[in-house]
Automatic annotation (TrEMBL):
Its main location: membrane. This is ABC transporter permease. SUPFAM superfamilies: MetI-like. The keyword Nucleotide-binding does not apply. The chain crosses the membrane at residues 15-38, 50-75, 81-104, 145-166, 186-209. GO terms for biological process: D-methionine transmembrane transport. PROSITE patterns: ABC_TM1. Gene3D superfamilies: MetI-like. Residues 12-204 form the ABC transmembrane type-1 domain. InterPro entries: AA_ABC_Transporter_Permease, MetI-like, MetI-like_sf. One of its GO terms (cellular component) is plasma membrane. Keywords: Cell membrane, Membrane, Transmembrane, Transmembrane helix, Transport.
Length: 216
């Protein structure tokens, strides 16, 4: 069977759109959530045991749900947000719910790696908690944060492929519809190869950016 490159290009565009929009909204959710998980813990800037325990539990709950199950479980919510449970836009909703808490945990780990001496020095200079977070904590952890975002982006590429199982579009949908259901091995190999190249490119770019912003 001849390969329809138009379909492959279209599917690639859908995958890129899913990953980009999911990553954007996931960062919007995950960044403040990750910061709060750090600053509300015991002995930190805004210590609050109740807030920390609630946020920590929420993140753990969402991280414990396999993506394929989460996609099905949030179908009513997906329909409420985008009006449908099928297609690229519909796939973005569970992808954000899946990756947002994951990014929050990655951000938390990166910020916790920052030397406490940096914050103590900032406090000694009279910096406010918000100034400490924005001018010291995040800049010091930026290299690690970029690596974390890279890992999350690669995870979203994999999630976008799984979204094809429920008609989410993209390369995953193409691989299932043509590669698996129609026994088209060529299409399957091409989609897998494209996904591998995407992952390699993302990891390389993330490593380069992280190295450039690393504070010496």
């Amino acid at each position: 069977m001849l390969v329809d490159w138009n379909q492959i290009v279209t599917a690639l565009g859908e995958t890129v759109a899913m990953v980009v929009f999911s990553l954007l909204f996931a960062i919007i959710i995950g960044l403040p959530l990750g910061i709060l998980l750090v600053v509300t813990r015991q002995g930190h800037l805004w210590e609050n045991a109740l807030v920390f325990k609630i946020l920590n539990a929420v993140v753990n709950v969402f991280r414990s749900i396999p993506f394929i199950i989460l996609m099905v479980a949030v179908i009513p919510f997906t329909r409420l947000i985008v009006g449908t449970s099928i297609g690229t836009a519909a796939a973005v909703v569970p992808m954000v719910l899946f990756s947002g808490p994951y990014i929050a945990r990655l951000i938390e780990n990166s910020l916790l790696e920052v030397d406490t001496g940096v914050m103590e020095a900032a406090q000694a200079m009279g910096a406010t908690p918000w100034q400490i977070i924005s001018r010291f904590l995040i800049p010091e952890a930026l290299s690690s944060l970029l690596l974390g975002i890279t890992i999350a982006t690669i995870g979203l590429v994999g999630a976008s492929a799984m979204a094809g199982a429920i008609g989410g579009g993209g390369l995953g949908d193409l691989a299932i519809t043509y590669g698996y259901q129609r026994f088209d091995t060529v299409v399957m190999v091409i989609t897998v190869a494209i996904l591998v190249v995407m992952v390699q490119g993302l990891q390389t770019a993330g490593n380069v950016l992280s190295k450039k912003v690393r504070r010496r």
